[in-house]
Amino acid sequence: MTHHHNTIALSDFELIDTDQGAGDALALEADETGDWLPAVVPGGVHESLLAAGRIEHPYYGDNERKAAWIEDRDWWYRTRFARPAGLDDGARARLVFDGLDTVADVWLNGRLLGHHENQFRPAEFDVTDALGEANTVLVRFAPPLAGRTVPPTVAEELGRLAAAFGALGADEAGGEAADAAAESSMLTTLPLATTLRKAAFSWGWDFGPNVPSLGIWRPVRLSVERRAVITGHHIALASLSADRSSAVVRVGLETDAAAPGAYTARLRLAAPSGRVVEAGFELGADGGGSTELVIEDPELWWTHDLGEQALHEASVELREGDVVVDAVIDRIGLRTIELDRGTPAARRFQFRLNGVPVFARGAAWLPASTMVGSVTAETYRDRVLRAREGNLNMLRVWGGGIYEHDAFYAVCDELGMLVWQDFMFACIDYPDAEPALRREVELEAAYQVRRLRNRASLALWCGNNEVQVLHLAAYQSVEPGDWGWHFFHEVLPAAVTAHDGLTPYWPGSPYGEGRGILSINGTDDGDRHTWEVWHGMVIPGMTIGPDEYPSIGDARHYRRYAYDTARFVSEFGIHAAPEIATLRRWLPDAGLEVHSSVFDLHNKDTPKNKGDELLSVTTGLPEGLEQYVAFTQAVQAEGMAFGIEHYRRRQPETAGALMWQFNDVWPGFSWSVVDYDGVPKAAYYAAKRASAPVTVSFADTEDGGLELWLVNNSRDAVELDVDVELGAFDGGERTTRRVRGSAGSAESARVLTIAAGEVPRDAAHYAWASSPDGAFPAARRHFAEIGRLELPVPQLAVSVVPGGLRIRATGYAYQVRIEQPAPGIRLSDNCFDLRDGDERDIAVDGADPAALSVTGSPVGSRTRL
After folding, report:
1. How confident is the model at residue 862 (pLDDT cuts 50, 70, 90)?
2. Which residues contact 387 (CB under 8 A, 6 or more apart)?
3. Residue of 117, 176, 444, 466 with catalytic role
4. Active site residue 466
5. How close are the terminal C-alpha atoms of the chain, in Å?
């Protein structure tokens, strides 16, 4: 999005640090000692120190701890520039910082312009009268938590939560919550930060380090304006006929024009086909105006799995007579997005895009680094493209991170990815009665809604992450009070209504309304975070599945997903190590031993052996790093596929499955399916197969039989053949049959039931379903835990073919794995099973196929439980 008035980018900054409160602005403005470092702008202090060689990378080894001093210093940025041309009588100049992180004071030529402490909205200053021929801007960032105290309401909630989680007992399923909270930011820095509008994860989380970003993290500009300017625009599809043959486009414009009648506006909208529509409209006394256009046969924006991503070139001009005094250019996708809530008798939580029901297949999106200012557009493109290639259609921007950079939303628009957008509140009460905080949230919400409302990818505004459910755990109530309620039920929805008006709003995640507090993280209404798996939580009447398990590992098992009847699952996940090459890039040799101190430092979940309990009942405990990577990735892959398949079979009663999490903020051990370096884990590929628009999956029947389901999330009904095989891993038994299956759009249909007596439920057999013409990915079912499978040691014949590799298996090969030694390699599939005699061609991009190593069956008969 670009404007046409005169804008001068300011990026040539330098940086120096002083003791807290010790620097003098006038002295530093004139200082020529040479102690200043070049500053990375946009970026941050850490990036600048790295570029200057003053620190080692805080993500490597145990350097996280060595970088702690940075937060305790005052950091000063300085830039100098000449008076801009054209600043004559009648013109005005604004100094605009799109992002200051976070507690900042700004001076221009020795004059204090103001104080700012909100990472999530710009700082703007009218500097018309302060500019000279030579100008110096100085910005001081103070330690963000200095002088803050925990608000009394927040302290009370924390005390109640500690008592509630402590009552579960340290040895019971889900009992490590108190230990986890003690190590995390929840009981230390996060409570202090509740009155500061800065990313909640800054001081560490259960997936990331304590490396809080600081500095000028978004662009800086000097804007010189001679006349009225456009301050906002909104172009969106207001309505669409049922047959999608006609649409009404709503156009709104906001300006700072102070002379009613002196200005008019003109829209030009060019479709991808080249068709152009234009319209003019008047502005009202408040400087704003709007119009509506009827467009026949509109070129619509769809997610990548449902259609084309038609993006229109839109320009809106502000005119004084025949003179264009300002203009804005944008890329707009025309679509309608609705949240279907069903009826009180049959509640739903389903998105409809252009009237078509969507099953949301996706994941939570986290900042791509704790150093949030320097994530490149190339990184955003790579990661979102990975999501698209993985058959995902929704990313949930998590409320403990940041409102993402424009580059993220632009590539989501371009690649057909829906965005669930949290407001930035997470996991703690917020003192919403505090006037200064409330004002900051009002300004932040208005700014962010206006910034993002034109994005075709924007599917939902959501009030927060897990605030209601944790408040409920502390108080057994979510009644109105000074804990964020007024933000989530008044301030934020009012901003969405006032400045957007078309995108749905939802008060929080998880949240539900059907049975009052029982629906907050319940299964009858709204969205749900299913953390019984992995954390092993067992709260009678509140969690899914039985109330007792043989072991804590069984309580953490992914088979518990089968009990989940949620309407929409917005978080579910299992921990896994990243690719071994990623670990070798970021850990010293001494840290590559499982559960060494540096190894465990890169695992922020607690206790550090939590995953071992799950491995003990699935794969068996690993011996060494290579097995640890293979085993944790195998369990995560099985779990994500199991969950996605279960949730999709339930559509439309369940209408979404968003994994926690898609990506990583640093190179560590987490729930991500793509690691910090952008390398997919086995679970990425398993989820890709399970998330294909058309797919099949097996489900157990209560009497021991087996069902085959056809799942269709394309726009058209499908009818196709499925080859079903029951076989033995040693290749000695193989019985096959072909069935014909059909399913309507957004429908799941059972196409085959195999009686219990026909199902060989033992460690030596499998079930397999495939397409004779490649219409969907193959699906399979095993009948024992991974580590008990009676797998042969497979023989893999690997050959290089044009564009990739050809792999042929002799003997059943479990999770055939193509190693990914460097970031940027793209494989059409990986970590897949091959039956005896199966052959697969895998496309390889970004590497010499001949240099890649291929292995099979990382778990199984060689490491039997």
Report:
1. very low
2. 362, 363, 395, 417, 662
3. 466
4. yes
5. 58
